[in-house]
Amino acid sequence: MIEPAPTWPAGQRVAVALTILFEPWSDGKSPSYSVQTTNLKPGAVDHAGASWASYGGRQGAGRLLRALDRHEVPATFFTNARCVEQYPDAVARIVRAGHDLGGHGYTQDGLLAYMEPDEERATIRRCTDLLTSAAGKPVRGWLSPVLAYTPHTAGLLAQAGYGWHSDVNDADLPRVMQTPHGPIVGIPTSEFTDNRVLRASPRDFVEVYCDTFDYLYRHEPGSLLVLALHCHFGGRPLMTAALDQVLTHIRKSRDVWFARHEELAACARATHTPKT
What is the pLDDT of residues 97-142, one digit of tens each? Predict the structure, then answer.
C-alpha cells in the first residue's frame, strides 16, 4: 500500500532525517565488518576490530557534531546505552548540542532477537534509565541494534513510555502503529548506511543520497529521506567529507525540512486518523 503524502509542518517539499548510530560492543567483541580484508579464525579476539569500533566514542562523534553544527542540521543519535558508561563526555556533547538521543540497545552485539520477553523488557528499561539520566529528560525513541527486533518489541517500547521507534523497513513514511500496550509511531530506517561503502568508495555514499534526494524532490512532494552514518565509520574524515557534500547539495534546495525523529513522530500523530 502506498501511503498518502503528508503535509509537513510548513508545507516543505521533502523532509530529511539524519540517523547517527553510536555503538560500542561487549568486551572482547567487535563488529562483524571492518576495513580489514582478512578475517581472523573463529574464537580469536579481533583487537584491531575492537580498536576500530572504539573510534566513534574517541573521535568520530565529535567530528560529526562539528559537521552538523556547520550545516545547522539536527540529528537523532541512536546510542547504545553502554556509551553513557564508556564515553560520557561524548554523550554529554550530543545532548548539549541539542540533538536527540534514541535508545539502541545496551551494546551492539546484545540483540533483542535472542532474548525472551522478560529479558527484552529488562534490557529496554536498563537502556532507558541510562540514557534518560544522560539526556536529563525522557528518551522517547528507539532503534533496535541491527534491526533485530521481536514481535514483542514495539509493544514493550510503548509500555515503557516510548512514543516512536525506527524498526521499520516496509514503509516510506512515518505511521501510527497499534500494539497491545497502545499506539506507537513507526519511522522508516535508512536503506543505505555508510558501512555499505566500507570496501568501496565514499563517493558511492554521496551519489546515492544526492541522487535519491533529487528524485524525491522532483517527483514526490511530501516524501522523506532518512540518511544514516555510524560514529565509528561515518565520523572518520573520509566519510564525514562525504556527508559534508551531501548536506551542501541538499541545502541548495528550498522547502526542505531537516527533522529530528521526534518531530516526525509528532507530525504522524497529528495527522493520524484513528480507525472506527
Answer: 999 999 999 999 999 999 999 999 999 999 999 999 999 999 999 9
Using the structure block, give the residue that is written with the C-alpha cell 540533538.
Answer: 99
Is 258 in contact with 220 (CB distance < 8 Å)? no
Run of H or E including 15: strand 14-22
Q: Amino acid identity of 161?
A: G
Q: How far apart, in whole angstroms, are the C-alpha atoms of residue 59 and residue 134?
A: 19
Q: Which residues are paired to 135 by β-bridges? A: none
Alpha carbon of residue 143 to chain centroid: 7
Strand pairing class (223-230; 14-22): parallel
Q: What is the model's pTM? A: 0.93
Question: Residues 6 or more apart from 168 whose CB is under 8 A from it?
Answer: 186, 187, 188, 189
DSSP 35-59: S-SSPPPTT---HHHHHHHHHIIII
